[in-house]
């Protein structure tokens, strides 16, 4: 479904069944957060976060993404998947995507697979960071996450989380550039 962000200045597409967290908790003005309200599908407890951040100046977009990852990860240098790109036709730019495991996985505890997209808005000196968090129970290696993202292994929660991230990234559209001042 098409979702308005930041008072309608931006639109994107997110799955039906996600709830706007700002309806029951305070969220910073530069952030939009949605969580799954269903408990019986592959999106169990998944969340998607849209952040408008100060532009990181780096030699490459991959390096800028790595800097943002270090700021959102609980791990100082998380092991990530290969960085891929998706094209956003509305902004006519390529966004860079990667994923990492947020907490060390164990057999009896949940870890979180975090998938991140970076859209560089040079015109607004802003980086858009879209984050999807997917809880996962059991042991999981980064190579398994990468295989799920490449559709060579079936892990439904990771596959649905990656689809949520790519759809939101490809459909991200700025309707009102005055949001950026």
TrEMBL record:
Alphabetized UniProt keyword annotations: Protein transport, Transport
Keyword Transport assigned: yes
Gene3D superfamilies: Mog1/PsbP, alpha/beta/alpha sandwich
Transport listed as a keyword: yes
Pfam family, one: Mog1
InterPro entries assigned: Mog1, Mog1/PsbP_a/b/a-sand
Family: Belongs to the MOG1 family.
Record protein name field: Nuclear import protein Mog1p
Biological source species: [Candida] anglica
